């Protein structure tokens, strides 16, 4: 008996397992309804295939880029000023610091203050530093804009003006407007070789911006030009600035920041050779004439010397120049079943939405809606408990 | 005949195409079941609309930020030590290197070793360098912690201790604890102007942290303060450190790394003026008192001189200080139909899940389940082959 | 009357609201169909659970890493050349610039040109600089590869060759092949301590690469070794290079760029201690023997001096070396209901696809398809207007 029961139960489960449920369907043969239905379906399917899969490449897994950049600037500049005399500038003089990870700074203009020593001198005249007697100056005061610590004395700055004496690197820098035209105007002809190696770690794909078909002799002489040499990784600084619709000589006066964008958009389902870098140049700092607090880009640095008495002296340089930030970005895509199914699954959900909309149209708007309703719905009433019924 | 057939076939396909299939539905009029159904549906719809669309902005396409940062530090510090005498430090002295891409280092403390020359001197006493005779020292040995190459001699380090002689930059640095209080304690009042230009390339949207409504005269005098001046891009170093719940003077002794986080969370469906940077400050290195192998942040650098004999000498500086890393991050979102449909589609899939759950409740738990089952299911038996049937 | 009507209407809406619709279903009890159905369903569910949820962790919200890196190199090198004599190099000599944000450069080889002064000297012989008389040289010409500005004179370079005189930093650098073996061959034994603090801002999770269970005494002496000391954050430079299948001494001659990759893949649903960094080393620049325009990595920098006449002289160094870029990347995942529901929803959409496929099989391929069709479909014809009907 028990075995028979067990057996029965087993059969039931078995039945259950092999039951295939399919919804009973009412087929309405109507041109109007059919057309509405098919058109909406077509739209959704077109959207899924066209937009998600083809345009947005929803069937691809994506990976972000890892990049390494090295740069090498070449060129010399000649300056002739009363302070420095005739002077030649080479790469060791105008690239500061000599190496950086993914940017480089080219000095284009400078204010030099030579032979500074720690000592006492008259502060540069300003509202807070001009004085008439020692009473106006307080020992130890250091304003946010002052160049040193006040000694409490009021001394002659020149024949007409007296200012508070400060302990500072003397003589003080005459921080006025930078020379215009810029001192290293020759910098516009400097060239920079940008070497960029990229990697998409998820796909184990490496490439560099010196493409395989470029040979050494071409590289020795080429200069990037969007129309004639779009693959040459050697850029003339002036070209970079002009591609961003800026004037090099104007920018060189106060300095600035240029973005050299290298974009790698790689569809790894296509041949490797189609994965090439595209260069774009943009000015990154703001040259908006309003709100120009410390416009451009400059910084101060010093070269330190010792004189014959073993006292430290320095040459202070307020260097204006252009910082070039190499920004590498991009994505690689490769076919992968997961994002495809995610997109298709979501799309099928939308097809369900189509059915809901069509049902509503059929059962409320069509003339034969009463017939359709009768055929579609079977009612089982269970409202016996409702008081109003 | 053939034409008639073709015609027939054509009509069939036509019929097929315009057939609209809608599932036949059993409507159960029961308060219990209805309530369960509607509540679950409401929950799912509320989730889709509320959480995915409103909170997570599932209807937006997002883009990551591209950023460019420049910084400018201002301030002077005065030190007075027996070694260096009275000395003033300005920006060219304490910012090393003078420019970096998105960080800057402020020297706050230092151990100076002046007038180093290549030569022979006694090694700093340690377990491995103390010796009693030349036999204890081997020519050419260079330990991982030694300052030079042993010459094989054992010489007096001072009156009481003998150590192996090394060929090194002499005199050797006395690498002890850094001065406390820190030498450049004044650094807490230095200010830094951070200029940050951002871009969301997908949306061609640019902005900078100096907001359009900020005028120059305000910028000349303002200092960031979370409550009174939250939009001023000029920060006092002490404020940065204190916002991160650290004490500047303590941190200045051994140095450290501070993160200046600029967060841009921009909803580009809203007006541009709502897209503003938010500043946050965090200490990035670990100040955990355990595991303090080389705590803080320091590095060695040297200034090179030539003396009157054209021999190279240098001043070695072990510089402790605070590196400020400017970290810009954030996202922009803008309405886009693709992520919206992806989320809605997935949500509709979940509505299907609701139906499954409700069906199960109705057909197994309700008292009238037998009736419902009869009405819902039509069975077609095809188990003729099953032995037990 | 009106009230009764209102009441009625209210009841109707109430009914409507509590109506529960469930599709009428045809259950086909057939082993074949059932098996096909269940197998496809099982596949889809296995895919959703296995691949999306378990492998791809589709139930997790992810966050990208924020990282801060500091490095400290230790070691000394001894060189002995005719130019420089016996010379010791320590960290202040060979790390240039002394600190960077997330990379460091170790000098391994160099070409030194001492005592350069601004002046006139004969250009290095080349196709464009060799001359026979002053006519071959033009005042003011500066070629892209020249070291200075031509003065218009043709002078003896050595006994046999005459070249154009240039105004430049003289004497000019003899830019040939770098010394082989490299001058700082000892650099292979330098060690670097890499301190890396990471943060996943979305999950407020911090960690650093010096793991909590590592004590100070271990850190003082350990050196990274993939098999014996995989958690030690101190790396010998030679080991880094060799892990990337490169030879240190070969690489040191021309320099190069090494990537030190620190990968944090953290499943924050698991204990924190499972979130550990994994180190990987890769050469980032290309050592491809073809296309070797300026192979390796080098840059020029100078040390500036003033001689007794207060004239500036400099020592120009063309430094070859290895730049180590510390690249920190990784992701953290933590359970979150949104991506889970997104994936499940999309998966359920796929289950709908299964039903479509099975229906098609049942209604077209099975022998009893006529019976099934009859049971499944009810037709309502509305083609009265179609001409052929």
Describe this structure in words.
Chains A, B, C: One of its GO terms (molecular function) is ATP binding. Chains A, B, C: Disulfide bonds join 121-170, 131-154, 137-164, 222-232, 266-275. Chains A, B, C: The chain crosses the membrane at residues 340-363. Chains A, B, C: Glycans are attached at residue 189. The structure is a homotrimer of 389-residue chains. With 389 residues, chain A is an alpha+beta fold. Chain A folds into three domains: 36-59 and 336-351, no CATH class; 64-121 and 178-335, atp-gated p2x4 ion channel fold, CATH 2.60.490.10; 124-171, no CATH class. Helices cover 26% and strands 37% of the residues of chain A. Chain A has eight helices and 17 strands. Chains in contact: A-B, A-C, B-C. The interface between B and C is large, with 96 and 80 residues.
Can you tag this structure with a few keywords?
ATP binding (chains A, B, C), disordered C terminus, four-stranded antiparallel sheet, P2X_RECEPTOR_CS (chains A, B, C), 389 residues, lysosome (chains A, B, C), 8 helices, atp-gated p2x4 ion channel fold, 3 domains, homotrimer
The CATH architecture classification of the largest domain in chain A is: Sandwich
Secondary-structure content class of chain A: alpha+beta
Helix content estimate of chain A: 25-40%
User: What is the fold named in CATH at topology level of the largest domain in chain A?
Assistant: atp-gated p2x4 ion channel fold
Overall body shape of chain A? elongated
Largest interface between protein chains, with number of residues from each side: B-C, 96 and 80 residues
Beta-strand segment tally of chain A: 17
Could you tell me the strand content of chain A as a percent range? 35-45%
Largest sheet of chain A: 8 strands, mixed
Radius of gyration of chain A: 38 Å
What's the domain count of chain A?
3
Give the quaternary arrangement of the chains.
homotrimer
Low-confidence regions of chain A? 384-389
Mean pLDDT of chain A: 85
- In whole angstroms, the N-to-C terminal distance of chain A is 49 Å
- Output the helix-strand order of chain A: HEEHEEEEHEEEEEHEHHEEEEHHE
Instruction: Output the CATH class name of the largest domain in chain A.
Output: Mainly Beta
Disulfide bonds (chains A, B, C): 121-170, 131-154, 137-164, 222-232, 266-275
Membrane topology (chains A, B, C): Multi-pass membrane protein
Protein name (chains A, B, C): P2X purinoceptor
Glycosylation sites (chains A, B, C): 189
């Amino acid at each position: 008996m028990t075995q028979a029961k067990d057996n029965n139960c087993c059969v039931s489960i078995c039945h259950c397992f092999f039951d295939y449920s399919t919804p009973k369907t009412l087929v309405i043969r109507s041109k109007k309804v059919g057309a509405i239905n098919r058109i909406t379906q077509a739209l959704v399917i077109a959207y899924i295939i066209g937009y998600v899969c083809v345009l947005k490449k929803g069937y691809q897994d994506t990976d972000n880029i890892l990049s390494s950049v090295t740069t090498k600037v070449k060129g010399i500049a000649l300056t002739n000023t009363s302070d420095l005399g005739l002077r030649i500038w080479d790469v060791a003089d105008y690239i500061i610091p000599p190496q950086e990870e993914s940017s480089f700074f080219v000095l284009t203009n400078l204010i030099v203050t030579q032979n500074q020593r720690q000592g006492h001198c008259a502060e540069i005249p300003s509202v807070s530093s001009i004085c008439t007697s020692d009473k106006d100056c307080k020992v130890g005061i250091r304003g946010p804009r002052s160049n040193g610590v006040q000694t409490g004395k009021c001394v002659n700055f020149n024949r007409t003006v007296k200012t508070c004496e400060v302990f500072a690197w003397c003589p003080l820098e005459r921080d006025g407007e930078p020379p215009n035209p810029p001192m290293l105007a020759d910098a516009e002809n400097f060239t920079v070789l940008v070497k960029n190696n990229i990697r998409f770690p998820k796909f184990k794909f490496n490439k560099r911006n010196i493409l395989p078909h470029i040979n050494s002799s071409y590289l020795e002489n080429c200069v990037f030009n969007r129309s004639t040499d779009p693959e040459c990784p050697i850029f003339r600084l002036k070209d970079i600035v002009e591609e961003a619709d800026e004037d090099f000589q104007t920018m060189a006066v106060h300095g600035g920041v240029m973005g050299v964008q290298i974009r790698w958009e790689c569809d790894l389902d296509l041949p490797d050779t189609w994965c090439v870098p595209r260069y774009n140049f943009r000015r990154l700092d703001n040259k908006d004439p309003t709100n120009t607090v410390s416009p451009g880009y400059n910084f101060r640095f010093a070269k330190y010397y010792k004189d014959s008495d073993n006292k430290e002296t320095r040459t202070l340089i307020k260097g204006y120049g252009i910082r070039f930030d190499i920004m590498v970005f991009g994505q690689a895509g490769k076919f992968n079943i997961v994002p495809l199914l995610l997109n298709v699954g979501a799309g099928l959900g939308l097809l369900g939405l189509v059915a809901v909309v069509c049902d509503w149209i059929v059962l409320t708007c069509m003339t034969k809606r009463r017939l359709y309703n009768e055929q579609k719905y079977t009612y089982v009433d269970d409202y016996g408990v409702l008081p109003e019924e």
